[in-house]
Backbone:
């Protein structure tokens, strides 16, 4: 399912609280085969919540809203979704660790889910949300860990890499390495894409997926009974 994510809370807009829920949900949803079309943040304002959901439904099959469910005056998400245009069936989503129940709204093939914003509650409710959404076919992904090469050099090496329809190459730099993330529709399409990328990048590729630079270095030291 193609989804949009909407985080709700004035504290997110002001920077008082870091939004960890988006990353958690995006990872879980992507692993289950769903695709994230867009991510947004709005404040504790009912009309803003409704506008964000309506905009999301214009480009995706479903919208996941988190934050603004609870008993306090700034918890505006539940009342706001009651004003969502159209005819929606409404049901609850169990919260196993908190008092604020989640919401599920359906209208034809469209779905809107609302969760409280407490990270521990979002994490605990994620399995139930995934069950409601159902599983899809996940994209095939490979993360190549590179060292001793900068992002511009890696991008230049892969500039004319042949890509099957829908495939993507992303560069994710962090101190000491750059991850080259390859995404394709199926493992059969990913395999030649990875082989071509490895051929162009050469020895700067030190590992893939869980084989990160530290783990590869540690394995090498162990094999040689060496220390640092």
Residues:
């Amino acid at each position: 399912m193609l989804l949009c994510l909407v985080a709700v809370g004035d504290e997110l807009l002001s920077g008082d609280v870091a939004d960890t829920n988006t990353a958690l949900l995006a990872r879980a949803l992507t692993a289950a085969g769903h695709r994230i079309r867009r991510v947004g943040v709005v404040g504790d304002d009912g009309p803003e919540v409704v506008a964000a959901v309506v905009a999301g439904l214009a480009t995706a099959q479903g919208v996941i809203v988190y934050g603004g469910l609870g008993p306090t005056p700034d918890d505006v998400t539940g009342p706001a979704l009651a004003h969502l245009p159209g005819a929606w069936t409404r049901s609850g989503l169990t919260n196993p660790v908190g008092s604020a129940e989640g919401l599920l709204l359906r209208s034809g093939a469209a779905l809107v889910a609302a969760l409280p914003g407490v990270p521990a509650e979002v994490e605990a409710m994620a399995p139930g949300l995934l069950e409601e959404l159902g599983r899809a076919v996940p994209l095939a992904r490979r993360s190549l860990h590179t060292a001793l090469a900068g992002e511009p050099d890696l991008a230049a090496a892969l500039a004319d890499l042949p890509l099957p329809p829908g495939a993507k190459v992303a560069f994710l730099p962090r101190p000491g390495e750059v991850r080259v993330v390859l995404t394709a529709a199926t493992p059969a399409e990913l395999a030649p894409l990875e082989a071509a990328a490895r051929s162009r990048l050469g020895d700067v590729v030190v590992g893939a997926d869980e084989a990160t630079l530290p783990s590869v270095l540690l394995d090498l030291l162990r094999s040689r009974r060496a220390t640092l």
User: Anything to note?
Assistant: The helical segments are 10-14, 21-31, 46-57, 77-81, 119-133, 151-157, 187-201, 213-223. The chain has eight helices and ten strands. The longest strand covers residues 35-42.
